[in-house]
Amino acid sequence: MKSQILIAQGLPLSDERIGINSQADVRTTGFAVQCRVTTEDPANNFLPDYGRVAHYRSAGGMGIRLDAGSAFSGAVVNPFYDSLLVKVTARGRRFEDAIKKLDRCLAEFRVRGVKTNIPFLVKLLRHSTFQAGLCTTRFIDETPELFQFPKRHDRATKLLTYLGEIIVNGNSLFGGQRPQPARREPAPVPDVSHLNAVPLGTRDRLHDLGPEKFAAWVRDQKPLMMTDTTFRDAHQSLLATRLRTKDFLEIAEAYSRLAPQLFSLEMWGGATFDTAMRLQKIPNILFQMLLRASNAVGYTNYPDNVVTEFVHESAECGMDVFRVFDSLNCVPNMQVAMDAVLSATPSHGVRPICEASICYSGDITNPGRTKYSLKYYVDMAKQLEKMGAHILAIKDMAGLCKPRAARELVRTLKQEIGIPIHFHTHDTGGIQAASILMAAEEGLDIADGAMAPMSGGTSQPNLNFLSESLRFSPRETGLNSLHLDDLAAYWKAVRQFYSPFESEQQPATTDLYSHEMPGGQYTNLFQQAKSLGLAGQWPEICRAYAQVNLMVGDIVKVTPSSKAVGDMALFMVANKLTPEVILDAGRELAFPESIIELLSGAMGFPESGFPDRIQQIILRDRKPFTTRPGETLPPANFDKIGDSLKGTLKREPTNREKLSSVLYPKVFDDFSKHVAQYSDTSIFPTPVFFFGMNTGEEISIDIESGKTLIIKYLTMSEPHADGSRNVFFELNGQPRDVTIIDRSLEPTEKHAVKADPADAKQVGASMPGMVVTVAIQPGDSVKKGQKLLTVEAMKMETTISAERDGKIADVLV
To answer: In this structure, is the dihedral angle defined by the CA atoms of residues 24, 25, 26 and 30, taken in order, positive or negative?
Structure first.
C-alpha cells in the first residue's frame, strides 16, 4: 500500500523507498490462491441465499489469511448487500502447496443456517485441470462434475434440533406430560476386559454342522439349554417394546463372554418395527426371531414373495433361528415361511434353523376340553416335522400349560417325533417355572427364560433362578449363576430408564384359564382400556374376552388373532353389548376392522372353521376367503416400490428399505422423515432420548468412528412473538443454538409457512428473496409454464412458474 501511494505521488520505481531498479528485481517468491466464500448456492445456479447464520466456524493456520465480512454465529445475511462471508487466502512455496493449504482450510469451515459456495470451491481446487493451471473461461461451463456435490449431513444441527424439541415440547409419547425416569446415570456394564478370547458357542456349532446335524446335536445334549428372551419378548410383554437398540449394544459384548452356554438370544420379531441387525459383539450365540408365518412381522397377510424375500434378507443380516408360527395353528399358512427358511443360503455361510411352532391353547389335562387334545398337538407336530422343521417349539403364549400338562405333552412328543423340543411360556400365573422343570424331567431340550429384572408377570420365567434350580442335577444348564447375576444387574438399572412406561400390573387370577389372554397382550390391552377410560372395568373386559373367544369358535389366540379378540372385547364393554345382543343381529353395529379380518379368513383358518352365525353377522355382505389368503394376493412389485421410495429418501433405496416399506408403510414413512429431520437419534443415551437434558447436563455421543460430539445444555430463551424459543448448547466447546416452536403457546404474529418439497402440489421459491410480483390468486386455473410469482434477491430476479396444469388452492405470501 505504501509503494502504491508513493508511485501515485510520481516517484519512480527505482526510488530507494520503493527499491525496484530493474525487471530483474521482480521475482516470484511463492504462490497465493484466494477464494471468496459467499452465501451463494452453486447447486442452484449460484443464486444467493440469505438468513441467519446459525453457526460459523472458520479455519486458520500457517500460510492462511482471512478477511472476514459478516461472518460470525448469529449474523444475519440479508438480500440487499454483497453475499460475501469471508475471503480466504493461502500461500505456499509451490502452487500445489497453496492449493493443499486452501483445501484443508475450506474443509474445516462449518457454516450452518445458510448455503455457501464452499462445496464448489473444494471441487474446483481438487480438479486436475485447475491444479495444472490449464483452466479457460469456459472451464466451469464445460465441467459438470464440479457441481456433483456430496450430500451434506449436518448431523450436529439435526441432533441439537431433536434435543431442543424434547426440551421445549416434551416427548409426544407421554401426551403432554413430562415424567422423569427413575435413573439417569449409565447402567453398570460388567467388566469383561480381563477375560480371554470370546468362547465358542452355539453359533459356531451351527456354522460347523449345518441346521440338520445341529438339531441332532441339540437332541443329544444332557443339559437343559436356555434361550434368553430379554432382548425381545420380555420387554415387549412388560414395557410394550420400548427398549432401545443402544441399551442392547451396551451389554452385547458381556453376553458373549459371560453366557456363551445360552442356546440363543431372542432379539427380534413379533409385530415390531426395529432393526434386524447383527450384533457383531455377540458372534458366538445364536440369534432368534419370531416369525408370524404369512403375517411375517405384521398384523395382516402378505403376498408370498414378500414373506420369502423378508426371510432371506433376515437370514442375510444374520438371523439364525426362525420360530415360525401361525396365529390360528393353520399349518398351510406356515408352508411358505418354512420353505423360505429352509431354502435360505446367506452369503455368510450359516444356514438358518427352522423352528416350527404349535401354539398351545386349552388344557390337555381337562377331560372337558376336547378341542385341543393331546392328539391334536401330536398330529400337528408330526405334520411340521414332515414339512422339514429342524426344531419343534411349544408356544404357550398365555401361560396356560400347567406343570402336569407340560410333562405329559413333552413326554408324548419325545416318543412321537425325532426333533428337539423348545418350550416357550409366559409367567402370567406365576407357576410356569414349574412347568419348565417338569418338562425338563421328560427330556425337554430347550426352554425360554428372561433375566431376573425383566422376568415374571406377563414376561417369561426367571432365567437366573431356573438355571440355579437345576444346578447339581442331571439337567444342569452349564450357565454360571454369578455371571448371570452380573448381567441381571445391568438390566435392573436399564429398566429404571423406562419407569414412566411401566404399566399398572393387573395380578392374574385363575380367570386366566378362562379368558386365555396371551402374556404379550395382557399389558397392552390394559393400556388400551385405560386410554378409553375403561380401566375400572378390567374384570368385565376379561370376561368379554372369554365370551368373544367362544363366539368365534374357541380359537387359538396369539397376535394377530388375539388382537382381533381383544378389540372386540373392548368394543363390547365400551358399548355395553352382550353376546346375545350381537348374535340377535337386531342392531346395525360398526364392528372393529380386526374382527372382520379375522372372520373373513384374512388371517387364516382355524382347524374347524368359524361358526356360520357370527361370521354372517360380522361380515354382512363381505365374502370370506375360501383358500389361503397369500395365494390370492398379487406379488409385491419391489421395483415399483423402489421407484416410489426414491422421492421420499432422495436416493436409491436398499432392499431392506423396500421390505420395511411393504411391511410397515406408514411406520417406515414416519421413520424416514424422523431420520431426515433429526438424523440418527439412536446414539443418544436412553434418558436423554426420551426425556431431554437437564440444565448444565453434558453428554458425549459418537456420530461415527472417530467423530465425537460433546453436548452441554445451557438454557432456553423466553418465547418470541412467533411462538419460538432459542435453545442454547455448547457443542465441542463452541456456542450453538437452535430455534424451536413452543407448541404450548399461541404466537402473537403469523408464522411463515414453508413449502414441503415432498409434496408435488406445493410450489416454493427456488431461492430466498423478496416476492416482488404475485401473478395469481386462489381459485385461478393455471397452465404448465405459466408465471406464478417473481422473487428478487441481491439484484437478481427469478420467475417461479407452474410445473403442471392445475388450480391455485392458496397463496401463502
So the answer is: positive
Hey, what's the cell of 202? Answer: 452355539
CATH code for the domain defined by 28-152: 3.30.470.20
Residue ranges of domains in the chain: 28-152, 215-499, 512-632, 637-741, 752-813
Residue 650, Ramachandran bin (φ over 0: left; ψ between -120 and 50: alpha; else beta)? left
- Decide yes or no: CATH 3.40.50.620 for domain 637-741: no
What's at 189, amino acid-wise? V
752-813 CATH pick, 1.10.1370.30, 3.40.190.10, 3.40.50.410, 2.40.50.100: 2.40.50.100
Q: Is the link from the previous residue into 560 a cis peptide, with omega within 30 of 0?
A: yes
> Which of 462, 485, 456 minimizes the C-alpha distance to 188?
485
Rg value, the chain, Cα: 33
Distance CA 107, CA 59 (A): 8
Read off the pLDDT of residues 496-549 as tens digits, 9 standing for 90 and up: 999 998 877 666 788 889 899 998 788 788 888 888 889 899 999 999 999 999
Q: Over the range 641-666, which residues count as b (16 or more CB within 10 Å of their CB) and which as e?
A: bbeebeebbeeebeebbbbbbbbbee
Neighbouring-strand partners of residue 662: none
* CB contact set of 649 (below 8 Å; sequence gap of 6+): 657, 672
**What is the CATH architecture of 215-499?**
Alpha-Beta Barrel (3.20)
- Buried b / exposed e over 219-241, threshold 16 CB at 10 Å, is eeeebbbbbbbbbbbbbbbbbeb
Determine the Cα–Cα distance for residues 622 and 619; give it in Å rounded to an integer: 5
Average pLDDT, the chain: 91
Name, in order, each residue with C-beta under 8 angstroms of 250's C-beta and a sequence gap of 6 or more. 186, 187, 189, 490
Q: Which helix (H) or strand (E) holds 324?
A: strand 321-324
Residue 270's region, left for phi above 0, alpha for psi from -120 to 50, else beta, is left
3-class DSSP state of 289 = strand
How do strand 286-291 and strand 321-324 relate by DSSP bridges?
Answer: parallel
Tell me 462's DSSP state: B
With 0.70 as the threshold, say if the pTM is over it: yes
The strand order across the sheet containing 770-774 reads 770-774, 787-793, 796-801
> What residue has cell string 348374535?
583
Q: How far is CA 359 from CA 323, 399, 730, in A?
A: 11, 11, 54
- Tell me the torsion sign for CA atoms 560, 565, 566, 568: positive
**Which tens digits make up the pLDDT trace of 741-795?**
999 987 766 666 778 777 778 888 766 677 878 888 898 898 888 888 887 765 5
**Quick one: which of 657, 684, 683 has its CA closest to 671?**
657
